[in-house]
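Re-run requested by the PI after the first attempt was lost when the workstation crashed. Everything re-entered from the original request form. Ligand of interest: magnesium ion.
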Amino acid sequence: MTTDVDVTERTPLVALTDIGKRYGNVRALEGVCLDVHAGDVTCVLGDNGAGKSTLIKIVAGLHRHDTGSFRIEGEEVRLSSPREALDRGIATVYQDLAVVSLMPVWRNFFLGSEPRKGAGPFKRLDVDFMRRTTREQLLRMGIDLRDVDQPIGTLSGGERQCVAIARAVYFGAKVLVLDEPTAALGVKQSGVVLKYVAAARDEGLGVVFITHNPHHAYLVGDRFVLLKRGTMAGSHTRDEITLEELTSQMAGGDELDDLRHELENRAPAGARG
Ligand SMILES: Nc1ncnc2c1ncn2[C@@H]1O[C@H](COP(=O)(O)OP(=O)(O)O)[C@@H](O)[C@H]1O
Ligand SMILES: [Mg+2]
């Protein structure tokens, strides 16, 4: 009995094994592995062009992998659309959030899944319910918006990421994928987003957090996957790696040493011709 439970608990929500993907002649991914567990934050780190977005587009149902295996709760899948991913509980928040900026926050929260009341020709949007629920759900995630009627475009980039996270939680996502949610944000706003990443994790979601910032990753991450030019450059659980090691691997430790050497050997600015 107990062993059955253990096995179920260890089956990842999402398991990518030896994933390969080409765009024509460009090899975007080769031999990449990624496990996502409930209540864990899995960070995907890598420089520009490392293949991070390609990897999460496969998870999100936007692209299909060429080789390897993609399993959702143990079942082999080939997703054909983002809708299919969403139906299986995988919600993705893209960097350039597809929000209609003049829409009130509550309208955006329910976009595409609006509840209606009444019947037949009298059926209409349940605006009161949407307003109330949006406010409640944001509060539950610790976001206290004074006015859910304000246009979503008036929120800061960080707040918009947070609304998207709260929305995924409310609509029952099991896996939440965030593509560089802190890339364009300042220190304070990044902190706010990281708090909601932790809140989603505490709700039991499996979070995939894409970033090129090892400091942000280490603040919330349980496991770390490093990509380099489309291949695996490392995969570690939190107790296997320190922030210093993660930072050094991200910066390409050796390359950075070479660069330091080169810069130190240059003549000081004042001594130059
Ligand atoms: N739609 C596409 N068509 C052709 N090449 C692409 C496409 N998307 C990404 N690539 C290429 O695949 C590689 C990985 O890109 P990407 O996954 O966007 O990396 P990252 O998100 O880590 O910056 C890059 O060389 C990029 O130019
Ligand atoms: Mg990217």
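Saved to the shared folder this time. The two ends are 79 Å apart (CA to CA).
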